[in-house]
Amino acid sequence: MKAFWDFWTAEADARPILFLRFATAVVGLVQLALLWPYLLHLYGNHGLVQWAIIEEGNASFVPTIGKVALAGAALGIPTATTLHTVFAVYGAALVALLIRRHSRAAAIVALVAHTLTVGSGFLSMYGVDTMLHVSLFYLCWFPTRPGAGARIAHRVLQLHVVLLYLDTGLAKASGAQWWNGEALWRAMMQPKFAMFDYAWLADFPHIVQAAGIAVVILEIAYPLVVWWRPARLPALAAIVALHAGIGILMGLWLFSAMMIALNLCAFGRPLLDAVATELDRLGRSVTHSIRRHYPTSADTVSDS
Amino acid sequence: MNRSRLVVPIAILHLTVVATFLWDGAASDSDPARTSPVMESYRVISGLFRDYKFFAPSVANDVRAGVLIEDGEGRTSFQTFAADSHEADLRVNCIISAAMKHKGGKDMLVRSLATAALATDPSGIRATVVTEAYDVPTMADFARGVDPKWKLIYTGKFERKQP
């Protein structure tokens, strides 16, 4: 029983959660900047999918942009203004998360705004939206101070990541395409993902097949071996390489960035610490160098 | 018992819900008959509205759609829904893909695409939505000379309602 409580509640600092907050805000803001010119097209009532169609399948109590816009329309606010306001509020909340101002309130506002967009843009969403939403949900609850709460939060994140890879790994294992290499081949050859010409892969079917099997094995093994300390770093490196590959080769940059961030938060603590230490050292070295050439008045006083 | 020990069961309960939704398929099936509005709301708020079976168990065909718009004098123009931004284009692709897979809602979703196209061309009176899937041959067939090609999978004709 002691091991159980130690697993969940041993004192811990909140650095992985702080990194999750930073990464979520950055990915969310980049995504928002890329999508801003297309908001009416993707989420508007006169866009590709009218709100009436979206609302028809909505069985939850959760409001959507459409419902909020209807309420606003009754007050004379154009629906396009409401839509842009929701996304502007979302962006402002992400900025607040990024600069660490009223972080919990910012996370709640960002989650509420993102939930509205999920309701109205459900059909246009893909993996990055799901992972952003999950992160925002957790950031509403996760503490940013050291303590037992930080440990619980970290464990929840770790176990969620484990469930994620079990789900995708087992689903891939159940499909013949992942064992004979056709899944990777088909994915790479699709116009929407073809960042480069991959036709040459057909000349090396065994390599493609081996890569497909490696993905399945990695995604099923990762949730198990990542708990074993000696295997953690190699497993993490492999999963980060997988997502970096998806980003580079298939153009799914935002999704890959979000997945890498989640994995680093969950299992990359030593790596994050090493990078933070290195950045800190670099920062101090740069500051020292600048101050040697351009001493401040305080430096001048202390030198004399 | 301190506060953190009270939070642990809630955390475990949440993760159990996550696992159940993934295992049960509820995360990929929003059939209102399967879940209560309360669970459905929790699903949406906590991000369990989609499963994590990315590219699994198999990789579907890429799809694209366009609309042939005809005005009152028989002139036609063709519009695609492609966006200039890769990120926006991925989403347009998701919509078209969802429209093609939507149980019973395909016509309604395609009508929505036609409406969006007609809205950009006030002189248009008829819209024909054409949807194609990118058929990728197997590696073996490709090596034998079979090329990938766009195949027509759906057409729908719609007329603007006169006021």
Describe the structure.
The complex is a heterodimer of chains A (304) and B (163). With 304 residues, chain A is mostly helical. Helices cover 76% and strands 0% of the residues of chain A. Chain A contains 16 helices and no strands. Chain A is globular and about 60 Å long. The relative contact order of chain A is 0.11. Chain B has 163 residues and is of the alpha+beta class. Chain B is 41% helix and 23% strand. Chain B has five helices and four strands. Chain B has a four-stranded antiparallel sheet with strand order 2-1-3-4, covered by helices on one side. In chain B, strand 1 and strand 2 (76-80) form a beta hairpin. In chain B, helix 3 (86-101) packs across helix 4 (106-119). Classes of the chains: A mainly alpha (304), B alpha+beta (163). Chains A and B meet through helix 1, helix 2, helix 7, helix 8 and helix 9 of A and helix 1, helix 2, helix 3, helix 4 and helix 5 of B.
